[in-house]
Amino acid sequence: MKKLLPLILILFAAPCFADFTGNWLLERCERNDDGSASYYQDDAYCIGYVAGAADILNDVSEICIDGIQYGQMRKVVEKYLRNNPELLHRNADILVRNALQKAFPCK
Q: In the prediction, which pLDDT does 8 show?
């Protein structure tokens, strides 16, 4: 049973991540600062999503980000999403990975 629990949790949690597309992420990253609580929430989603993905990709040596700030990575991801609207229906994690790998490859 202990071995099945992680699999069961993943199967039930998977639908929760289905809506995290490039459209979803770009909407949060591009939101204008209107001083509302929802703006700050969207801003946190954007930077948190990019920072989390960057940390994981850096840990497995898919990108090299020593000395790069999260704000710069966020701008790179936003630019990639805006410049590739035909890809926005895809999963946000794949798009963030593509953007960061292109901008910060390990040599």
A: 47
